[in-house]
């Protein structure tokens, strides 16, 4: 019965999407309708072949989505870093905005593609992968919902596909970190609710009485991102057959809602979720317990209470009332303390195992990621202070801050996770080459340092040049003067990106060879253990 119901649903979706494609009012909507038609037809054919086949009742951990997720995390990372490196050179050498690709591959179209590829494709896939792995191991239970886990995983990949093609074709809200248009937002909402149900359902049927702290962070990330996404993307479509929509909010209310969303996307998507990773994978790789479990609980509650108030610091010196931006600034400064509490907890987990830094490049990568977390969570509150913000805002300093966090913290902890997961998921005794992990570590670390340092220099340079006035009170420098002055640092930034990308490519080769060539594990570890059902 269920097989035939699926066939009906896939058939209806294919039919409706084909009709939508024929009535489409713009190219982006038409391309997306065609893509949905092809996906639905493919699923219809696949399900038709499976009709009548005996159902295999699977037991043990559901690691299928985790395996595919690990592979796609590495893939999306390379895509995001490649696009980012290219647009970095586009800024240094504008001739790379090719006239023949104008309107598709120019900087304005590729920049949101880069940010979404790194944050939502690379980071989001990593978070779903980590969530599915961690919640099963810490609960002693298989993922709840049967194939709902697969729906979440592939449904999210469809979001990435529609968003990425939409950016290149001009379908965008034009809101930072919230660019996808209305129908992609609706589909993401459906997928995210299913994600929440899978995670909660697995926790509810856990065999361990205690809910490990990593799950607290992951659950807060899932719940809060759902709330942020729904409120910030409230919009009315211009037409049911077009990609364009009109935002529900306008003016300063829209700005406030956007940066409530934007900063908490950083706070819960890129911080809380990845802290869940840290609290699981660092102790596992170090083979040491969390330094202070009590501190991890304090870290959790302080972080989720304070972060949600910090967004207005993005709107100093705007139409937003001073009391609101001051409130955001105060909470941002207070936020420094629990953030560093978490950093200290992560680093001190290596107590008694510091010698592993000499011998284990994976733990070295994780430790550096925690260091970048600490640096970014000090720099962020400092930049939120109004006097500092008057210099830093709208400059490349902000870009350097974002990338030291996204590449140094999120990127490095994700690389560590992948190096931990792949041998266990494919039953290998270890990685193919620790020497290649060391190469990756140094290329990535030096690349981030070059990137961040060059942006600090050019950001402060920009800020000082913009505010320089002569004896009569006239501005000394034009905008073009600041652009010319930044050129050397833009080249350094691009080279840093090349190094980071090279490290990611080495990682992909190492992981591929681990699956293909590394010796098999002699005994099943925790990755192969099956919970009794």
From TrEMBL:
Family annotation (Pfam families): COX1 (PF00115)
InterPro entries, A to Z: Cyt_c_oxase-like_su1_dom, Cyt_c_oxase-like_su1_sf, Cyt_C_Oxase_1, Cyt_c_Oxase_su1_BS, Cyt_c_oxidase_cbb3_su1
Iron-sulfur found in the keyword field: no
Cofactor(s) required for function per UniProt: heme b; Cu(2+)
Keywords, comma-separated and alphabetical: Cell membrane, Copper, Electron transport, Heme, Iron, Membrane, Metal-binding, Respiratory chain, Translocase, Transmembrane, Transmembrane helix, Transport
Chemical reaction(s) catalysed: 4 Fe(II)-[cytochrome c] + O2 + 8 H(+)(in) = 4 Fe(III)-[cytochrome c] + 2 H2O + 4 H(+)(out)
Membrane topology: Multi-pass membrane protein
EC number(s) recorded for this UniProt protein: 7.1.1.9
Domain of life: Bacteria
Cross-referenced Gene3D superfamilies: Cytochrome c oxidase-like, subunit I domain (1.20.210.10)
Location of this chain's protein in the cell: Cell membrane
Pathway membership: Energy metabolism; oxidative phosphorylation
Family: Belongs to the heme-copper respiratory oxidase family.
UniProt protein name: cytochrome-c oxidase
Source organism: Aliiroseovarius salicola
């Amino acid at each position: 019965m269920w097989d035939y119901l699926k066939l009906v649903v896939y058939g209806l979706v294919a039919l409706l999407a084909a009709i939508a494609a024929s009535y489409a009012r713009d190219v982006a909507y038409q391309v997306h309708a065609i893509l949905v038609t092809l996906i639905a037809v493919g699923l219809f054919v696949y399900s038709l072949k499976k009709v009548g086949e005996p159902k295999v009742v699977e037991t043990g951990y559901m690691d299928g989505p985790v395996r595919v997720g690990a592979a796609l995390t590495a893939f999306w990372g390379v895509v995001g870093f490649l696009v980012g490196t290219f647009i970095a050179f586009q800024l240094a050498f504008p001739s790379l905005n090719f006239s023949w690709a104008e309107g598709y591959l120019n900087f304005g179209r590729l920049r949101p593609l880069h940010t979404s590829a790194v944050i939502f494709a690379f980071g989001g896939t990593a978070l779903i992968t980590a969530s599915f792995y961690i919640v099963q191991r810490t609960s002693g239970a298989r993922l709840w919902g049967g194939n709902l886990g697969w729906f979440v995983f592939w449904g999210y990949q469809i979001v990435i596909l529609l968003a990425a093609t939409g950016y290149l074709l001009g379908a965008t809200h034009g809101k930072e970190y919230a660019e996808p248009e209305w129908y992609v937002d609706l589909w993401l909402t459906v997928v995210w609710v299913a994600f929440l149900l899978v995670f909660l359902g697995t926790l509810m049927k856990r065999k361990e009485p205690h809910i490990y702290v990593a799950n607290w962070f992951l659950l807060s990330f899932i719940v809060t991102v759902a709330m942020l996404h729904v409120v910030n993307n409230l919009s009315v479509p211009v037409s049911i057959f077009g990609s364009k929509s009109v935002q529900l909010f306008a003016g300063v209310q829209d700005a406030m809602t956007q940066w409530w969303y934007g900063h908490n996307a950083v706070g819960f998507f890129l911080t809380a979720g990845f802290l869940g990773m840290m609290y699981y994978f660092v102790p596992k790789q170090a083979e040491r317990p969390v330094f202070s479990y009590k501190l991890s609980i304090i870290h959790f509650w302080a972080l989720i209470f304070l972060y949600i108030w910090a967004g207005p610091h993005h709107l100093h010196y705007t139409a937003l009332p001073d009391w609101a931006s001051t409130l955001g600034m105060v909470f941002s400064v207070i936020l420094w303390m629990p953030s560093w509490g978490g950093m200290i907890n992560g680093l001190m987990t290596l107590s008694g195992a510091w010698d592993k830094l000499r011998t284990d490049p994976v733990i070295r990568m994780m430790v550096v990621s925690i260091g970048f977390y600490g640096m970014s969570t000090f720099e962020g509150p400092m930049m939120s202070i109004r006097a500092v913000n008057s210099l830093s805002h709208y400059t490349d300093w902000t870009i350097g801050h974002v990338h030291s966090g996204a590449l140094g913290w999120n990127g490095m902890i994700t690389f560590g996770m992948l190096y931990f997961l792949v041998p266990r998921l494919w039953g290998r005794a270890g990685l193919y080459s620790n020497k290649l992990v060391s190469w990756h570590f140094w290329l990535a670390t030096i690349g981030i340092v070059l990137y961040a340092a060059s942006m600090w220099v050019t950001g402060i340079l920009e800020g000082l040049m913009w505010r320089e006035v002569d004896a009569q009170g006239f501005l000394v420098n034009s905008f073009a003067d600041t652009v010319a002055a930044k050129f050397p640092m833009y080249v350094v930034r691009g080279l840093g990106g090349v190094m980071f990308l090279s490290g990611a490519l080495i990682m992909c080769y190492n992981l591929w060879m681990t699956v293909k060539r590394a010796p098999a594990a002699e005994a099943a570890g925790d990755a192969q253990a099956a919970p009794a059902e």
